[in-house]
Description:
The protein has 278 residues and is an alpha/beta fold. The chain folds into two domains: 2-119, Glutathione S-transferase Yfyf (Class Pi), Chain A, domain 2 (Up-down Bundle); 137-270, Rossmann fold. Helices cover 47% and strands 10% of the residues. Strands 2-1-3-4 form a four-stranded parallel beta sheet. The protein has a four-stranded parallel beta sheet with strand order 6-5-7-8, with helices on both faces. α3 (50-66) packs across α4 (76-91), α3 packs across α5 and α10 packs across α11 (227-240). The two termini are 37 Å apart.
Amino acid sequence: xxxxxxxxxxxxxxxxxxxxxxxxxxxxxxxxxxxxxxxxxxxxxxxxxxxxxxxxxxxxxxxxxxxxxxxxxxxxxxxxxxxxxxxxxxxxxxxxxxxxxxxxxxxxxxxxxxxxxxxxxxxxxxxxxxxxxxxxxxxxxxxxxxxxxxxxxxxxxxxxxxxxxxxxxxxxxxxxxxxxxxxxxxxxxxxxxxxxxxxxxxxxxxxxxxxxxxxxxxxxxxxxxxxxxxxxxxxxxxxxxxxxxxxxxxxxxxxxxxxxxxxxxxxxxxxxxxxxxx
Length: 278
């Protein structure tokens, strides 16, 4: 089966290693993907022009529908945008008619027939933990604090990503690497990125609180599955804190390393705060 891979805007520009590591893992798992000429998921317009936001998101899904493929995205923000759009169009027939009228100019139509999956969901629910285990060649001697982020978990009645109060998908996927998954109280709290540039003091305090909590619970690193969270924990930490508190590593880098993929393809050396693989 073939899938459309949706990278969004942030990954190619700010986190290219998330893209290359995602492609490397899917190739190793022999997952066939295509990357049509998508546009932005629409998220930047969400609070400015809601209809424009919906149109941007629906256009991407209409493109995938035309190609008869479901979408996999490693970006939780894009995942959230798609699910918000599906919810809006399902519950507002006049909006659906308006959006399809606009899409018809390009010979496109949104029907809601395709499935949207975040990469974690795809690996956990479609590939399966047992299959992932078969591809592991290195056991990671690390203690990892998994960080879920906000966009996929909330609002749960729209995203349906996992149990919003006690999610387990991320832990289950990371467990296959042989790493120890630490229990930490702030694992479901926001990283602070949405406030960066608006209220930097509060944003950085939220980030520092999370990093310190992971450290106090003996984590060697934080594992992320969200572009914005990785930027906050890696790039912003490097820019704002004189002492690096805790390395932040994309989950695809950790999983790919355990699968024996080339480190160059995973881009681990590009992380601002290095993690030592024992």
